[in-house]
């Protein structure tokens, strides 16, 4: 827990910590810590998966097969039988004279002791119809005195692990729940109407009364659940509002476009007109970097919507204002594409563009480093090598990260640390072709300013998508022949074999050989992640130049490659790709005026999600719709790429179902932060502990 949590002083926490430090940890204690159950509050927030009803005893005659119940009876007989295998068989009889058989395939001498004839036992389990009437296999049981009290509330069953017995966890949680500082942090009237106080909600969820509705509890619809979800969503909103506030206090160089400056010259030199959407987002960015506060903006736009030129315009403004701009891409190929394009646009205007990737070495590297450090280079393009320790910038004013979701949170935190100096932070523009669905944008990315390009440049013909079984492979190769004969180019994408890079290479190599043999006279290239960068670049330039007609590649071409003459994309084993990956890949065709086709080859049998993905691809080319379906199929955990650290995800709230609560949390967060900053901080600490930092990256 961070030191700043002092707003919610908790002597009990401290006492518990000293107590545990004093004696060695038991095995269940260690298992609890592995589950992240350290503080009292962590235990209090560890909620039951389901409940068992031990609040009543039913007559054996009322027990039904398949419905768990608790019964009570006197042991009439207990013996070890050997057929069909060794087992303990116990016969009990309740006060009405009805009998039930208990069967234990694993048992210990202690079992036999509890089942001494004449002993009264309480047994809980799911009866099934047996040869001699009803029986229970491996019920829970305990010997009791006549009239022993029943449980006062439903018994919680917690997510646990093999080394962590339920009984131990139940005790630990009950104790922690009593100790945990659960006083109300939120001012009266701020919690949505009808929801109980936090302590009451938690007491209810851990120990529901005998008459509680199990359905409402299990579906998380009960007001107690709603309260927890609201708390969690509020903490998330607060932490992001804090991030935004903190950023407002930072300073960045104000970058303003001068009249008749580079920005205008670049616009005039472009071979096309900006689309309305490009103009709009370029203006949003210009406004933002013109303020003296660091920009933190995500530019989203479908594949091919023209984000690069928007980035170039922002770079032109920065350079014109006397600052440098760095542009980073996740792969060398993509970085190189940007480099070529930007050199083409900017060097004629007198701007030096430096080039930094892992494969730029020796003297060349030294030169590029000097250009960045001296300020001679206005723009530095590269992979994450750009943020390596040895790289120095003279005056970095703007950092642009393409395909931001491919960079990890850690890398982005590092980027911000590295780029800030002299009390000035650079502006940050992130670009992504995977649009964030609205619900996610409002929750996880609430601290981010968003610009959206929602229009493609004119003259594009939509890509037609076909889904074929493997058996149609020959037809597909025939189609390739046709396309090539018409002077078009084709991509063939091989899947990544996750377990083995060697197998992956083997696959691509085999396919390459096979296609070369099937298409005599056609230049067929191979592009693979393991090839040296220079070789990759050579293959790419043959394909970009048009002399190579068919390119067999693993997913290294996934992002950003731009060859307008390519009209056919074949994706082999399409069922192994994720939905957004397929959409990105498909975006490599349909970049010119030619009608293009994307063929998804699959190998049966398809899983349900595999089917759903291929169907989505066939039904829509709209990136936003794809993202929405992806969220539906995978859930936010996997969707989020860079923010994927499980710890930062919502545990209780569901963005689809709880959008009303999300709206309420969004409305409350800024007000609470303004009017009761200490309570707001305590709320964030209670829920996020040290994880809040991660959410801000
Ligand atoms: P993405 O958003 O996927 O990064 P790019 O920036 O690579 O897209 O742009 C795709 C292609 O469209 C490029 O060839 C680019 O030069 C071209 N382009 C961008 N904007 C326009 C426009 N307004 N009109 C015509 N072509 C454009
Ligand atoms: Mg791009």
TrEMBL record:
Sequence ranges assigned to domain Helicase C-terminal in this UniProt record: 472-637
Signal peptide location: none
Assigned EC number: 5.6.2.4
Biased composition (Low complexity): 1-28
Family from the record: Belongs to the helicase family. RecG subfamily.
Purpose of the protein: Plays a critical role in recombination and DNA repair. Helps process Holliday junction intermediates to mature products by catalyzing branch migration. Has replication fork regression activity, unwinds stalled or blocked replication forks to make a HJ that can be resolved. Has a DNA unwinding activity characteristic of a DNA helicase with 3'-5' polarity.
Protein name: ATP-dependent DNA helicase RecG
Organism: Rivibacter subsaxonicus
Lineage, broadest ranks: Bacteria, Pseudomonadati, Pseudomonadota, Betaproteobacteria, Burkholderiales
């Amino acid at each position: 827990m961070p030191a700043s949590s002092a707003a919610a002083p908790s002597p009990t926490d401290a006492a518990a910590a000293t107590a545990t430090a004093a004696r060695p940890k038991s095995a269940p204690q260690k298992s609890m810590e592995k589950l992240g159950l350290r503080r009292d509050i962590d235990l209090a927030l560890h909620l039951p998966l389901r409940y068992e009803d031990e609040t009543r005893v039913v007559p054996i005659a009322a027990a039904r097969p398949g419905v768990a119940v608790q019964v009570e009876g006197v042991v009439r007989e207990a013996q070890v039988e050997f057929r069909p295998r060794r087992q303990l068989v116990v016969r009990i009889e309740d006060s009405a004279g009805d009998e039930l058989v208990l069967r234990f395939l694993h048992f210990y001498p202690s079992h036999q002791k509890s089942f001494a004839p004449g002993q009264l036992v309480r047994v809980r389990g799911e009866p099934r119809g047996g040869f001699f009437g009803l029986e229970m296999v491996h019920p829970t049981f305990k010997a009791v005195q006549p009239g022993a009290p029943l449980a006062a509330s439903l018994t919680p069953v917690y997510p646990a692990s093999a080394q962590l017995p339920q009984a131990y966890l139940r005790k630990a949680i009950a104790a922690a729940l009593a100790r945990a500082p659960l006083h109300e942090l939120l001012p009266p009237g701020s919690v949505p109407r009808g929801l109980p106080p936090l302590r009451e909600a938690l007491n209810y969820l851990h120990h529901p009364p005998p008459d509680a509705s199990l359905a409402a509890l299990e579906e998380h619809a009960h007001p107690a659940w709603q309260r927890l979800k609201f708390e969690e969503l509020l903490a998330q909103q607060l932490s992001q509002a804090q991030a935004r506030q903190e950023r407002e206090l930072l300073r960045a160089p104000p970058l303003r476009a001068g009249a008749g400056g580079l920005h205008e010259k670049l616009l005039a030199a472009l071979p096309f007109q900006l689309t309305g959407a490009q103009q709009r987002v370029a203006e949003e960015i210009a406004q933002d970097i013109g303020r003296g506060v660091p920009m933190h903006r995500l530019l989203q736009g479908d594949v091919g919507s023209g984000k690069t030129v928007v980035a170039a315009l922002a770079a032109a403004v920065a350079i014109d204002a006397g600052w440098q701009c760095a542009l980073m891409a996740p792969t060398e190929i993509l970085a190189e594409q940007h480099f070529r394009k930007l050199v083409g646009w900017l060097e004629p205007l007198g701007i030096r563009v430096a080039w930094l990737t892992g494969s730029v070495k020796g003297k060349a590297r030294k030169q590029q480093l000097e250009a960045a450090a001296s300020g001679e280079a206005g723009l530095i393009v590269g992979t994450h090598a750009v943020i390596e320790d040895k790289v120095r910038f003279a005056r970095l004013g703007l950092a642009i990260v393409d395909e931001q979701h491919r960079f990890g949170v850690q890398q982005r935190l590092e980027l911000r640390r590295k780029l800030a100096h002299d009390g000035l932070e650079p502006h940050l523009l992130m670009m992504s072709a995977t649009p964030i669905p609205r619900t996610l944008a409002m929750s996880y990315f609430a601290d981010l300013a968003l610009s959206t390009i929602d229009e493609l440049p004119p003259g594009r013909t939509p890509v037609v998508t076909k889904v074929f079984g493997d058996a149609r492979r020959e037809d597909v190769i025939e189609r390739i022949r046709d396309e090539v004969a018409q002077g078009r180019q084709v991509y063939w994408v091989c899947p990544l074999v996750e377990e083995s890079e060697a197998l992956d290479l083997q696959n691509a190599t085999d396919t390459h050989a096979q296609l070369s043999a099937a298409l005599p006279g056609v230049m067929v290239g191979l592009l693979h992640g393991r090839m040296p960068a220079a070789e990759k670049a050579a293959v790419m330039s043959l394909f970009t130049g048009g002399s190579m007609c068919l390119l067999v590649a693993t997913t290294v071409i996934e992002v950003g490659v731009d060859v307008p003459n390519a009209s056919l994309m074949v994706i082999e084993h399409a069922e192994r790709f994720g939905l957004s990956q397929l959409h990105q890949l498909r975006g490599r065709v349909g970049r010119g005026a030619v009608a293009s086709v994307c063929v998804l080859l699959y190998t049966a049998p398809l899983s349900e999600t595999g089917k759903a993905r291929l169907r989505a691809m066939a039904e829509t080319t709209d990136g936003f719709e794809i993202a929405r379906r992806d969220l539906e199929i995978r859930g936010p955990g996997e969707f989020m790429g860079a923010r994927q650290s499980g710890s930062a995800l919502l545990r209780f709230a569901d963005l689809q179902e709880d959008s009303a609560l999300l709206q309420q949390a969004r409305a409350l967060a800024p007000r609470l932060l303004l009017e009761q900053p200490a309570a707001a901080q305590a709320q964030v600490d209670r829920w996020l502990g040290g994880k809040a930092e991660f959410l801000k990256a």
